Amino acid sequence: MSTRGAIAVGNLRHWRGVYNHFDSYPTGLGATLYEHLMQRMLEGKTLAEIGADILCFDDWRNYLHGGICEYCGKMTGQAHSISGSILGKRRGKYPDPKAKHHSHQSLENLDEVQFTQNDLADSDLEWVYILNSTSECIHVLSVRERRKHVGDLRFDVTPDFGKMECGEKFERCHHYAWNHFPEIDQNGPQGRLGTRQYLGLAPVNSREDAFAFETKGRRYLRTGSGVHGDYARRCRLAIPMPDPAAWYEEVVGQNGQRFYLAVARAGRREHTPYPGVTWIFPPTKANPVETMRHG
Ligand SMILES: [Zn+2]
Ligand SMILES: [Zn+2]
Questions:
Q1: What is the pLDDT of residues 134-183, one digit of tens each?
Q2: CB-neighbour burial class of residue 91 (10 A; exposed 0-12, middle 13-18, buried 19+)
């Protein structure tokens, strides 16, 4: 999934900005933006001047290219609806000079394509960076967290982009726990735990969290591939899955043999353990023993 964001100019109450499509979290776009601003300020531009430059464009990527379309070479708005036939083919020359395989956003009505504080409710932006030339900093908003102002990037101290992204105590971390805790084996029982689960800040009790299943006194490790019994029936999969209301997981037995086991009753709202099956959850930092949920 792409992480959408905006780079804006103004203050915490009033701002206007341009869109960015990919990697807009602080360790991605935040760090790139910071480096870009530092570079341009070293060249003698003020934060206000850089902000004014950015607002001449419709999109952060287009601003970085100076408004020159990387597919046709024209001075225009951000390219979109790019056909697969020209994607990734831009070594040195323009792959689609007549713009037959892509379209552009217009630079005529920037009001329509730029974002303001009023657009947040209907947008899928996740991060907003506001260049504030009065306080000489960049405000960072986490839109997912009710548009919370999570901190400022300042130019006199090197920012900790990781802390800004995940929170001082990992309160907004969406990474797997192994990203932050080297003691975890990515391919081991704890490999699927989120950071907040590992720390006891979020529950560990869903089918997704189980690393193994037990039935009739035997334990089977989960491989990670699963399928709904109903889907298997409709698609006429050759694998035996007799119960159309069950969720089947591929598991590995002690002899290394792989097969599909009914592990959950697949309800509309949630999955619960299948009768006679126990879900096994890995130890966490907060609770260093395995936990179970019985069917
Ligand atoms: Zn173009
Ligand atoms: Zn994190």
A1: 999 999 999 988 889 999 999 999 999 999 999 999 999 999 999 999 99
A2: exposed
Q: 283: which residues sit within 8 A by CB, 6+ positions away?
A: 189, 190, 289, 290
Q: What are the extents of the domains in the chain?
A: 5-166, 206-294
In angstroms, what is the span from residue 113 Cα to ligand 1's centroid?
17
Distance 66 CA to ligand 1 centre (A): 13
Point out the ligand nearest to the CA of residue 178: 2
Torsion angle in degrees (nearest 10) through CA of 74, 76, 81, 84: 30
Dihedrals phi, psi of 27, to nearest 5 degrees: -75, -15
Among 10, 76, 89, smallest CA distance to 47 is for 10
Q: 37 with 60: CB under 8 angstroms?
A: no
User: What spacing in Å lies between the alpha carbon of 87 and ligand 1's midpoint?
Assistant: 12
Residue-wise pLDDT for 222-261, tens only, equals 999 999 999 999 998 888 899 999 999 999 988 899 999 9
